[in-house]
Amino acid sequence: MKQFEFQKALTAIFTVVDDVNRFVNVVEPWKLAKGKPQENEERLATVVYIGLESCRVVGLLLQAVMPVAMGQLLDRLGVGHENRTLESARWGYSPFGQKIQQGVLFPRFVPLATTEKGGKGPGTKGAKKASKAGRGMETVQKG
After folding, report:
1. pTM
2. What is the CA angle 130-65-75, rounded to 5?
3. In this predicted model, what pLDDT tens digit does every residue of 83-120 receive, in sequence order?
4. SS3 letters for the chain?
5. Domain residue spans in the chain?
6. If 0-12 CB within 10 Å is exposed, 13-18 middle and 19+ buried, where does residue 57 land?
7. Crossing angle (nearest 10°) for helices 37-62 and 67-76
């Protein structure tokens, strides 16, 4: 009898997410874009492709456990419904130069309660950011 070990599969997928996040933070593509664009154009394109292709593959693999959020992610990446299969979760399937829709899929959590002295809470810039993030979340959930 086959055993399905969902926890191990999810752990492996989120390890990839952590690795890609670490890669982006180390390479700092925002600095490549601001520095000398002509010299960094190819490297920047490669870094962005790695990030987006990783999101596409992870989105495909997580559809079963996060169908709404991953559906929205794949919509934004321009992945057609016919290409949302496990067979499509191969690296390099997306073409370079594909247009994507921008937006926040998972808004940053900002607690509304005031923390210790000097903390951000209602009535501060932190609350305004939380409010904006909440509006973005409503948009995502309604979509």
Report:
1. 0.71
2. 65
3. 999 999 999 888 767 788 888 888 888 888 755 555 55
4. CCCCCHHHHHHHHHHHHHHHHHHHHHHCHHHHHHCCHHHHHHHHHHHHHHHHHHHHHHHHHHCCCCHHHHHHHHHHCCCCHHHCCHHHCCCCCCCCCCCCCCCCCCCCCCCCCCCCCCCCCCCCHHHHHHHHHHHHHHHHHHC
5. 6-88, 103-143
6. buried
7. 150
Q: How far apart are CA 58 and CA 17, in angstroms?
A: 8
Cα–Cα distance measured from residue 87 to residue 99, given in angstroms and rounded to the nearest whole number? 22
**Taking the C-alpha atoms of 107, 104, 75 and 54 in order, what is their torsion angle to the nearest 10 degrees?**
-80
Q: Which CATH architecture has domain 6-88?
A: Orthogonal Bundle (1.10)
Angular region, 47: left φ>0, alpha ψ -120 to 50, beta rest: alpha
How far apart are the C-alpha atoms of 37 and 118, rounded to whole Å? 40
Half-sphere exposure of 4 (CA within 13 A, CB side): 2
Lookup result for tokens 């290409």: 83
